[in-house]
């Protein structure tokens, strides 16, 4: 791509030889836009608030300064952890940790730990007690360890919040506030995100020094998504949605595809049907899986050349998976920001390319106008005239009560997801024909479940919070460098 030659080279930065050697062996020569803007200031020790499109190279923008800072300090007689990177999801933490391992591979003696939920607390404690230099963590587990005496965080001089807005969105606000309060005040703080939100603005004020730098490479551009991305939408009648998905998977069977759903239950149902009853090569990842399974699915998908992965937004947040050809938004995103994050899973890095398709019901067509307003321009793709009729297969599968239950729960999950969508007149639950929606899940008609359309969320039990509490008690396993 032409921008390659315009951008400055990493070797123009004042960083250590070991870091430059690592960057070279990772295959990078020129900085991306966000890297060339953030790195000089971050290396000078300034606090940073950076917003840049997904796939623009934010990870190295904060890891290089972190590694350089540790290099300067590690030889002095300090004890305790020096830098902490916080990620909203376990998968993103694992990925960031992997990039960190590459980056410190020539820095002998530099240590790091991955501290995430779903793995052994005890093992992590032992590791933290050894004063590892850099910790990459999810907020809940990090805060757990901060309440133990094994973890010495009193020397922390740099805190990075990656995908900061999501840390809030996923209910970690309280944990994060506590973490920030307990850390030494005299530290460098860097906040990275693909999209801006009001909650991050508030966080900025509380966590940053007054002379922080705001860097936003999104503003320089007249489009909100990367250039190598071909993106379009398809209008599909509700009852054919599943058939459409089946056909799409057939057409893209030699490619790497990620399909986004709005609920775990919907991922489970569609995966079960297409994998088990239609023999399609499909993996799935969602929040109801244990960490071992989640990690093994991600490992398989990372290394596959052709494969489909069904996922929820939570599971896929911020992940950098090599060469994803297609991003399919089977369920619509809740807003334009979520759209940007989802399509950000393809066309990543300098000059990369990828395709994205958004499936909309005829009633949702107006969403395209909202995307236009946010500088996201979509082509209209025609849908196929002929689908395979999967109804006989669906009917046969429904004989199994387990599968029928999955369909009912998926239907429920789909409807619930509409309640939290912001653009109520585009994603209008009250105008939805629930019998037809049920058909798209292979059901004969609206199942007998308590959907209570129109009731506000506060009148229902807080399922999500409860699920989080449960997941915090899962036994865990150690992860080290
Ligand atoms: P973001 O966090 O902004 O979504 P990542 O840091 O995950 O993006 O990087 C996206 C992709 O770009 C990764 O595959 C990474 O290896 C690649 N990348 C990062 N920096 C560079 C660079 N300077 N040159 C080429 N590719 C890069
Ligand atoms: Mg990132």
Explain what you see:
By secondary structure, this protein is an alpha/beta fold. It folds into 2 domains: 4-216, P-loop containing nucleotide triphosphate hydrolases (Rossmann fold), CATH 3.40.50; 229-471, Rossmann fold (3-Layer(aba) Sandwich), CATH 3.40.50.300. 42% of the residues lie in helices and 14% in strands. It contains 19 helices and 14 strands. Strands 3-4-2-5-6-1-7 form a 7-stranded parallel β-sheet, with helices on both faces. A 7-stranded parallel β-sheet has the order 10-11-9-12-13-8-14, sandwiched between helices. Helix 3 runs parallel beside helix 4, helix 7 (139-146) packs parallel to helix 8 (164-182) and helix 11 (264-277) packs antiparallel against helix 17 (401-419). It is globular. The protein starts with a helix and ends in a 10-residue tail after the last helix. The model is unreliable at 454-481 (pLDDT under 50). The structure holds adenosine-5'-diphosphate and magnesium ion. Residues 58-59, 162, 318 line the site of magnesium ion.
Briefly summarize what is shown.
This protein is an alpha/beta fold and 481 residues long. Helix content is 42%, strand content 14%.
Describe this protein with a few key phrases.
alpha/beta; Rossmann fold; 2 domains; 14 strands; binds adenosine-5'-diphosphate; binds magnesium ion; 481 residues; disordered C terminus
